[in-house]
Amino acid sequence: MSTLRPTLEFLLYDWLHAESLTERERFADHSRETFGAVMDICERIAREKYAPFNRLVDTEEPRFDGERVILPRATHEAHAAYVGSGMLGAAQDYELGGMQLPYTIEAAAGTFFATASVSIGGGLLTIGNANLLMAHGTPLQREVFARNEFSGRFSGTMCLSEPQAGSSLSDIATRALPDGPDFEADPLGPRYRLRGNKMWISAGEHELAENIVHLVLAKIPGPDGKPVPGTRGISLFVVPKKLVDTEGRLTGERNDIALAGLNHKLGWRGTTNTLLNFGEGSFPVRGGAGAIGYLVGRPGEGLRCMFHMMNEARIGIGMAATSLGLAGYQASLEYAKNRPQGRPVGPAGKDPAQPQVRIIEHADVKRMLLAQKSYCEGALALLLYCARLVDEQHTGTPEAADEARLLLEVLTPVAKSWPSEFCLEANSLAIQVHGGYGYTRDFPVEQYWRDNRLNMIHEGTHGIQAADLLGRKVVMEGGKGLALLAARINATIERAIQQPQLAEHANALGQALQKVGAATKAAWATANAAEALANAVPYMQAFGHLVIAWTWLDVLLALPAQVERPAEEGRVRAARYFFHYELPRIPAWLRVVETRDPTCATMPEDAF
Amino acid sequence: MSTLRPTLEFLLYDWLHAESLTERERFADHSRETFGAVMDICERIAREKYAPFNRLVDTEEPRFDGERVILPRATHEAHAAYVGSGMLGAAQDYELGGMQLPYTIEAAAGTFFATASVSIGGGLLTIGNANLLMAHGTPLQREVFARNEFSGRFSGTMCLSEPQAGSSLSDIATRALPDGPDFEADPLGPRYRLRGNKMWISAGEHELAENIVHLVLAKIPGPDGKPVPGTRGISLFVVPKKLVDTEGRLTGERNDIALAGLNHKLGWRGTTNTLLNFGEGSFPVRGGAGAIGYLVGRPGEGLRCMFHMMNEARIGIGMAATSLGLAGYQASLEYAKNRPQGRPVGPAGKDPAQPQVRIIEHADVKRMLLAQKSYCEGALALLLYCARLVDEQHTGTPEAADEARLLLEVLTPVAKSWPSEFCLEANSLAIQVHGGYGYTRDFPVEQYWRDNRLNMIHEGTHGIQAADLLGRKVVMEGGKGLALLAARINATIERAIQQPQLAEHANALGQALQKVGAATKAAWATANAAEALANAVPYMQAFGHLVIAWTWLDVLLALPAQVERPAEEGRVRAARYFFHYELPRIPAWLRVVETRDPTCATMPEDAF
Prior knowledge:
- Chain A is an alpha+beta fold.
- Chain A has 19 helices and 12 strands.
- In chain A, strands 3, 4, 5, 6, 7, 10, 11 and 12 form an 8-stranded mixed β-sheet that branches.
- The radius of gyration of chain A is 25 Å and the shape is globular.
- The model of chain A has no long low-confidence stretch (mean pLDDT 96).
- Chains A, B: Its cofactor is FAD.
- Chains A, B: Belongs to the acyl-CoA dehydrogenase family.
């Protein structure tokens, strides 16, 4: 039996006191019971409609028959059940048909789907898309597009990357030209014609919903007719696959968006990933050239608007990575409990006439299981903490909201990158526990590992996250975010140090915090960004380990001083694993940061 | 252009002085030119017959049509070209049709095939199988089986594991019963009837050769009719797929070996991997029940015989892992040199009107490339060093041969495990350099990563290697092997410390050696194997890093004091990367070894 539900409940209620959110006006109708009902529904749908088809969606990859993208029937049924659960709009206002559910609970419930089949997927993109429109769209854009996304009638995408511009958005070449002299008069927003190619668009083409709402970054040419260079030239457009009227009804006309190709991936195959051509003339529409798109927000502010959905999207990726890690942990735990092989080390194991023991009795198998538990449950705790901060940002007092915002700025790169790296490592350990069987497609763990490899790449690669963390987040607003995080960590240390059984961890965490702080200063000592950021990834790895160690120590504070139940003992052990086996890795990462080691940065190209 | 050939030549000649082997009688006809000719042939075959089909053999997995296992035509052609190269018997005596090639050169040449397509494969198993028969078989077994393997007429397998006995060979259940009263009179060796199932048998069924020679571990029942428990009950048998006469001709009769299933793997799909049923009655032969097998060596000594092929097999696995790492390094280097994306950090990169730079100009991409180079070329150097020790063991003076044997005992677990772990990490970095493209099947790196994941599992898992290293190899013969390795490392340190540019590395290596030595003692301080081995894998990781750092420092001693050429600068940088970014990881691994940390070993099962 999966330990996911009790782990979530412990973290949500014993640690994060999520039920205290119901004291706030927005969540006043909720209670631990209503939260539980949401979790029940999601858990059931995931068990019945997702988990049984995870391998199927891997082997029956999306294909294009020339007209339509074909997905397995199981994907349609899972999607329908997901829509039926109401989760797409769960966080929205009652008047929009939502249930004003805290994001913390939404994020927690999402793990059921992601552990069952990450690539059938939940509503991450659709929700993010619609949330962005709620924040930056006109009232009619919200009504026509967002509302229909929350109801599941339409689905959503983010169209940022282009074949020649992956991480470098300032180099996008998609252009948007005003559509006729009356372009500003369109009730759906200033109407443009878009032409360009968008790469890596997840869920960019399918038949799961009536329509697909693309949010597209493009450049409006300046007065000289040329696109404005850099990111300040980027604007945001809502570009529906099928045109709609002001009531959100399909007009029957298709927009000029053509599927140029499906990407054939290493994993995550249940989700289509596409190259889309906008306005190339495959579906000429209303006599003009280009796909019709409506401006969202003001011209030149596209990236700022898009970043609105970035924090939640990045937490979502971290949650996907964590869920895959947890799925592998459960699978390998189950295997280890049932597979007999070998005998104990030492005298007890010398008699070959004795039966073999189950592999969970071997120290090295326990090590591989405990590492997984420590990585994945630690990551889960951090992500729920971040989700709780999102709720604080939206519903807390002004001071608390601003603190939450700042903490999220600093923690988001970690919440996205750390699980991507270490829950992937957990999946590799899950394979290793299975031995040769883990390397076959008869067991689920190899797929988890393949699926998880995506998470270090999409929504900003590891390198991008690291540059964001060290180059921006820890120095922004005079280092206020980092100082705030340090204060939270110190508060945890001060509580823990008073408990004899936690004092050792508290001291170790204090030293790690001091080291990371010193390394941050040393990296920037010359105020030269190229030198500071030359080792940004090792910095992020050390920073991430600090944050997860802090998370674990804080989680331990929610346990009784005398642990008695096995689950409590498990958390104590997982934390101890992290403090004994993982936290000591920090100095090795920081060494090159502190010295601004130039070994890599100055490597001559011809010496490779 | 691949840098593999010049790297190999540098390591073989400038560092290992491989041409000095030609001063020995066995290799007297050889010269650097004849070695070069062998390398030329292998490089050409790999380029023409292997590399173009690496993706094909991944997508056209082996399948069984009810009678035969079908492999792509390209595999047949690659195999034929490989056989034609003479590499199968290259190391053998002239009188056996060999060319008395040093193993060092054979191993080096093998990297061309493994980088081009690891799963089309070379002759690892066939050569190992035949070498075992040369060492332990009767003259007729050598003539009938080994000789035909060296010529490529027959191919070979190792049949150790069973579904219920993977790593635990003492639990195999395959039985061998004497075949009739005259069983000892068969000219091919004492004749038995075998019944049982063998799992994970690579190349267990195919049509690439006229016959398949299985070397099978099985138990001969004791006087009480029961199999002898433990490993001392294990005997070794040669079991041909098709029966042969004393001239090695096929008799036309098929032996009772049935393909029970093909394993469907995560990678390495160009090689069939099988479950074989011996003697289940699918092909009843000569009226008896069971597959016919001929005893090799003496009853009960099967495992000892089998271990004869283990060292070379494990070096072979390390070489495969390393080759995959090198292939990913080359692919990502090529990509990074050609992919424009983004701009430099700092003022130079602020102008979006400037064109994008190639990603190899970014510090973090350089870091990922240099890490790959450091891992993979370091591993390559170690493996060639081990191969050189194999030659020393076979052709050196008695003292040198014994030293080589001892060093190989200690180094083999590292040579197998370290590349399996860190060249896999290199492959992950190769994906990361490619960004989203690396996650698609349009680029080769995802396949390298999948293929490489096998190497931590087969030929003894990571856990098995670690228990072997810490439980046996560093303590055997009173710690003589470890002392010898330490003496070699100290000799390198003493030479390096005299060169100002190497002194820092030499000091760091000295400290690491001291730490590993102390941890070895501390692990065994209570003389309790269960305590000592509870953290055997972290110990092996630290030990491996020590060995690779030593290898790199020793390699640097082969460079001129003033490096001038780019390739030389590259080696200096790769070594420096290892000393600055990797060696400092050792204390974190050893901490739990020194304290015999029981966090994992004593974890209660119900706390997971």
